[in-house]
């Protein structure tokens, strides 16, 4: 079993340093060319892989141009265009409603504040953080997706379970300059090594400081269950 560093702040900094060396080109994997496309892609990515979203949006972004066209599309038409995406009916509703609000209340522009973004249908704090960071260059939080949630618990950075609380605790220990990159590093490591079901601890650059490391530890701190 790995041994965490003395403080969670030291642990967080060491994790960032090692993962930056391992994934020097880590960045967002969703493809988009505008703030609206980014917003739509992030809404679609909930409980769906970025790879699948990128495949779907190739045609979607060619078909619809601007928030008015999404807002005016019929529910059936937009849902059909998204039918390979998980929960595509609900996501079509979110996109249509969000675009209606963007047209009616924001002059057709994707808003640039947390409060305004989270008032849009289908947009929670995680989605808003992504849009702010990559659409507006505003970093005011840490995006907590399933990879960040899993790794931050496994690595002893938090014991919280809800994304909002995890984010708050991470913001206290991860240097602000790394808030945006921390998410991308966790996603890359979560996909490549620290997977949900079968993490490859033998090939992990964090194994010696990970209290969940499978060599000796009996518990996966991400789930609280035995390995």
UniProtKB/TrEMBL annotation:
<dbReference type="InterPro" id="IPR023170">
    <property type="entry name" value="HhH_base_excis_C"/>
</dbReference>
<dbReference type="InterPro" id="IPR003651">
    <property type="entry name" value="Endonuclease3_FeS-loop_motif"/>
</dbReference>
<keyword id="KW-0234">DNA repair</keyword>
<feature type="binding site">
    <location>
        <position position="201"/>
    </location>
    <ligand>
        <name>[4Fe-4S] cluster</name>
    </ligand>
</feature>
<keyword id="KW-0411">Iron-sulfur</keyword>
<dbReference type="Pfam" id="PF00633">
    <property type="entry name" value="HHH"/>
</dbReference>
<keyword id="KW-0479">Metal-binding</keyword>
<feature type="binding site">
    <location>
        <position position="194"/>
    </location>
    <ligand>
        <name>[4Fe-4S] cluster</name>
    </ligand>
</feature>
<keyword id="KW-0408">Iron</keyword>
<dbReference type="GO" id="GO:0046872">
    <property type="term" value="F:metal ion binding"/>
</dbReference>
<dbReference type="GO" id="GO:0051539">
    <property type="term" value="F:4 iron, 4 sulfur cluster binding"/>
</dbReference>
<protein>
    <recommendedName>
        <fullName>Endonuclease III</fullName>
        <ecNumber>4.2.99.18</ecNumber>
    </recommendedName>
</protein>
<dbReference type="InterPro" id="IPR011257">
    <property type="entry name" value="DNA_glycosylase"/>
</dbReference>
<dbReference type="InterPro" id="IPR003265">
    <property type="entry name" value="HhH-GPD_domain"/>
</dbReference>
<dbReference type="Pfam" id="PF00730">
    <property type="entry name" value="HhH-GPD"/>
</dbReference>
<keyword id="KW-0004">4Fe-4S</keyword>
<feature type="domain" description="HhH-GPD">
    <location>
        <begin position="44"/>
        <end position="192"/>
    </location>
</feature>
<keyword id="KW-0378">Hydrolase</keyword>
<dbReference type="GO" id="GO:0140078">
    <property type="term" value="F:class I DNA-(apurinic or apyrimidinic site) endonuclease activity"/>
</dbReference>
<dbReference type="Pfam" id="PF10576">
    <property type="entry name" value="EndIII_4Fe-2S"/>
</dbReference>
<comment type="similarity">
    <text>Belongs to the Nth/MutY family.</text>
</comment>
<feature type="binding site">
    <location>
        <position position="204"/>
    </location>
    <ligand>
        <name>[4Fe-4S] cluster</name>
    </ligand>
</feature>
<keyword id="KW-0540">Nuclease</keyword>
<dbReference type="InterPro" id="IPR005759">
    <property type="entry name" value="Nth"/>
</dbReference>
<keyword id="KW-0456">Lyase</keyword>
<dbReference type="GO" id="GO:0141016">
    <property type="term" value="F:G/T mismatch-specific thymine-DNA glycosylase activity"/>
</dbReference>
<dbReference type="GO" id="GO:0003677">
    <property type="term" value="F:DNA binding"/>
</dbReference>
<dbReference type="InterPro" id="IPR000445">
    <property type="entry name" value="HhH_motif"/>
</dbReference>
<keyword id="KW-0227">DNA damage</keyword>
<comment type="function">
    <text>DNA repair enzyme that has both DNA N-glycosylase activity and AP-lyase activity. The DNA N-glycosylase activity releases various damaged pyrimidines from DNA by cleaving the N-glycosidic bond, leaving an AP (apurinic/apyrimidinic) site. The AP-lyase activity cleaves the phosphodiester bond 3' to the AP site by a beta-elimination, leaving a 3'-terminal unsaturated sugar and a product with a terminal 5'-phosphate.</text>
</comment>
<dbReference type="GO" id="GO:0006285">
    <property type="term" value="P:base-excision repair, AP site formation"/>
</dbReference>
<keyword id="KW-0326">Glycosidase</keyword>
<feature type="binding site">
    <location>
        <position position="210"/>
    </location>
    <ligand>
        <name>[4Fe-4S] cluster</name>
    </ligand>
</feature>
<keyword id="KW-0255">Endonuclease</keyword>
<keyword id="KW-0238">DNA-binding</keyword>
